Predict the structure.
Amino acid sequence: MSATISPRSALVTGGSSGVGFALAQQLTAAGYHVLICGRDPDRLANAATLIAGLQTVCANLADPADVDRLASIAAAMPGLDLVINNAAVQFDRQWMAANADELVSDLSEELAANLAAPLRLTARLLPALAAAPCATFVNITSALGVVPKSSAPVYCAAKAGLIAATISLRHQLARDAPTVRVVDAMLPLVDTAMTAGRGRGKISPAAAAAAVLAGLQKRRVRRIRVGLVRVLLGIHRLSPALAGRLVSD
Ligand SMILES: NC(=O)c1ccc[n+]([C@@H]2O[C@H](COP(=O)([O-])OP(=O)(O)OC[C@H]3O[C@@H](n4cnc5c(N)ncnc54)[C@H](OP(=O)(O)O)[C@@H]3O)[C@@H](O)[C@H]2O)c1
């Protein structure tokens, strides 16, 4: 008698570079069929040459129609049981020096991609994940959602919103869909395009991805705190002002 191994699929948004790419690599190595998305078709094509079997979709998550299209494709994947809301953008802006129209355009894009898209994707994919024997939504967040820095108010606000929504949804689904986990994975500074030219003590995208996936191995995991995040949150509990000074730029 031959045993049948059920296929397992995962969606990683923004998997064409940085942490998302490392997540896609490691999930594929673990036997997942992985779907990624991004805006740049060349980066997606490059990722597909580096990861065997990788499925890619060109989509801009700041556009709700693209989010819905991505969700339809993901929902059709056999054995979809993991969605990692990873894609995000960060615009550093000095508000007094910036043009108001640019600020308004940036903040619309940043809130759409970083906050509205993960929630919209969750809404669209919840039925598929609730139908799986056990499934997980992971929202990639940042300590900046708890200890904001001065140069990126909208990014910090979007991450704070995502942290709050993750907790709220976790409570709701614990009651209404107990087989679906909603996990907040909070990263420290990671050496990616997003942090190019700034910050010290960055960890590699591979290390960040490995820590997230290791955290998911724990059945009852609700939050994953990678590297120095735990230290910063500890300082913040004792002295929010000191934590603020440590991240301020
Ligand atoms: N790097 C850090 O230090 C750090 C720290 C804490 C948390 N995080 C979080 O970790 C996650 C990954 O960040 P990263 O550092 O790996 O960033 P990254 O290297 O800049 O990669 C971002 C990925 O998201 C995609 N993306 C960005 N905007 C998108 C959009 N509107 N629609 C679709 N795809 C989009 C990018 O592809 P395209 O540009 O081709 O669209 C790329 O694949 C983010 O949620 C970030 O907030 C990062």
